[in-house]
UniProtKB/TrEMBL annotation:
It comes from the Eukaryota. Its main location: membrane. GO terms for molecular function: transmembrane transporter activity. Keywords: Membrane, Transmembrane, Transmembrane helix. This is Major facilitator superfamily (MFS) profile domain-containing protein. It comes from Boletus edulis BED1.
Length: 95
């Protein structure tokens, strides 16, 4: 069974070290024509997240009253987070 060459042997036979063409000062810049779109998408995402939390906070007293218990506040929050976490990958995949 042939052995794999060592790192020094690979360099000696002409293979280049990974990342040899990378520059230390290399910088990736988002083109200016896309910056507005990305900023708008980010603001929309933040707005929808805040709106979602506001709706849950507003509906929470009604939900707890229907569940008939003051101890149900934590269950409502846990159920919301579980549902949001479960469906997030699906939303990301379809969009």
């Amino acid at each position: 069974m042939p052995s794999t060459p060592s790192h020094q042997e690979e360099l000696a036979i002409g293979r280049k070290e990974p990342g040899h063409s990378w520059r230390q000062d290399e910088e990736h810049v988002l083109p200016k024509n896309r910056l507005g779109i990305v900023s708008f998408a980010f603001v929309c995402t933040m707005f929808l997240g805040a709106l979602d939390q506001t709706i849950v906070a507003t509906a929470l007293p009604t939900i707890v009253a229907r569940l008939q218990g003051g101890n149900s506040y934590s269950w409502v929050g846990s159920a919301y987070m579980l549902a949001a976490g479960t469906f997030s990958p699906h939303y990301g995949k379809t969009v």
